[in-house]
Amino acid sequence: MAKYGEGDKRWIVEERSDGANVHNWHWAETDCLPWSRIFFTKSLSNLTILDGEGNLHIKTKKVEKVDGEAYVNVRKGKIIPGYEISLSLSWEGEAKDGEGKTLLKVDGSVEIPYISDENADEDPEVKVTMTDEGPVGKTLKEAMLAKGKPLVLEKVRDFVQAMAKGGPAKDELESKKLAPKNINNNSNSAGVSKEKVVVEKEAKKEVKKERKKGFKTITMSEKFNCRAKDMYEILMDENRWKGFTQSNARISKEVGGQISIFDGSVTGSNLELQEGKLIIQRWRFGSWPDRIESTVRLVFDEPEPGVTLIKLTHTDVPEEDRYGNATVVENTERGWRDLIFNKIRAVFGFGI
Fold it and tell me: Are strands 258-261 and 78-96 parallel, antiparallel or unpaired?
């Protein structure tokens, strides 16, 4: 083992004078958000959902927004995608009678609040809304859910597969694959293969955690003497928030709904909700630099009746606030522990 500060030369990658990234040894990161916007705009705009079936006409109009982050990391030809994005698109519908006369025209929207590489093997939630909720409008909405939602999810799955292949970096990777390669002895291939799997898994974790300079991730595990559904209800109920924090709070219980806690010092929205199991929210502190948002993930586990374990992962917390103070991470972690978790134990008697 090398001495501290020296490093093991077997693992040190020297910088080349020509700046070349030979065999992609160094991490090469590509920002995929602009590409993602183009991908969804092309695949989800002007799609015909129904063209007269049941006297209904439904089509998508355009993708209104694609927000969040998306990237692809490549090292030694291995692709490691990462993305946390939300999107919305508009749609229109028309219902006609048997003679072809228009009964109702409506406009609506489709919201997908959370598409993440962490849930790449699961379909995200799709929320369909519209301007008219009358009987005919309800028929159009149900048709959009029955026929349009599967088509939208199909396009999302196409995006997931495209990102897994490298997204906008795919062409570059393909060209490198065509380059001549030296064929070496394969006697150690089995051992190398196993080692590569382990390294790749660890590398993905590290890239995910450290992909942004100047940002940190807070992780905590806390136990409470209660049922998981009780803790979930407390954290999603604005009146109980007001009670244990002694401050104003507004908390929507719907995906996509807005939240405001600690007298408006923290604002955000709900990305994913599973009652008694999971809360994922966007959080932004008023003291943070403009356009900086973090993601809060609370996983509820009940290993035995009456005992709840909460695993907190708070990602993309900036190291400095807008005034240059470098105590944001420390203060945020202390806030979770002292102002939220410990207060809940004290006020509701859930201490262990």
Answer: unpaired
